[in-house]
Amino acid sequence: MNLSFHKLAVLGQQLFASTVMPASSTETHAPLLNAAQLAELIRRTRSLQTPYLREAHQRHAGDLRSAYLGSGLDFEEARLYQPGDDVHDMDWRTTARTNKPHIKIYREEHQPALHILIDRGPSMRFGTRSRLKATQAARIAAMLSFAAAAGNTCIGGSIWQPDAYMLPCRNGETGAMQLVQAAIAPCPPLSSAQSHVMRPFADLLAQIDTLLPRGSRVVLISDFRQLRATDQAPLLRLASHHQLQAIQVLDPSEAMLPNVGLMRFQDTASEQSRWIDTASHAVRTAFQQQAELHQHELHALFRRMGVHLQHCMTDADPFDLLQEIA
Questions:
Q1: In which domain, by residue range, is 93 found?
Q2: Separation of CA 276 from chain center
């Protein structure tokens, strides 16, 4: 077969194996997680001892320490009086000691906010071991949201798919269940026509940045295969305005091409297919090198934004990831 290493490298970033055992129509239109699986995820998540006890940024009344200064119960500091300050907040002791007017500043107590973006695009509807990438993304989202719910966090999210939509912020387990139900909804393969109507990622990022209060915690769960140069500016704005985290979900075959002999690949966007001899050491080496280069560039992109990119394979336990970032 005449296929240059360059073409194979590009192909390896876009094509997905069609030799995986096909699922029945009933399976492809079933929820990604059943009730028992979801219950087990919730049980394990609740076993964590320290679920996201971080400073809150959502400007709603609550019990957690806020990143903002203002009115509240916890005294933070005394500072010099400025025109427009409320005289009721005068710190008379400091004023008398320094002979300069000072006022008291308190730490506001606000409710934390968590917004999770879940990628359910064409490349996420793929998996060769254990589960689809979209299923692993749903498991991660479920564990993150229920861990945050323990602190009465206001939880919302965005679902990126052909009919992309945002979920409003809701308190505690109500918000967690709302997000999880959207994340585990049936996720059948997309046709090329459906793939082409995907909302631009940059538009969704800009909407999230506009609608969320400054300082919200935003988690992106995606394989980032669809990331384009036009997405970098809104990503940078999002990172500068909010606490941004990025979790990359990958299938093991995307890091290293398995040796299964002659194999047919199909491009989920164009629906074109071709055969590749995966038994060839040269082919597998070229694929792995290109995959490593792609990962290096992706990590460098997020590093420039001050965002740590974490990854989770489809056959890994997302509980390990949760313990790492909790």
A1: 61-110
A2: 33
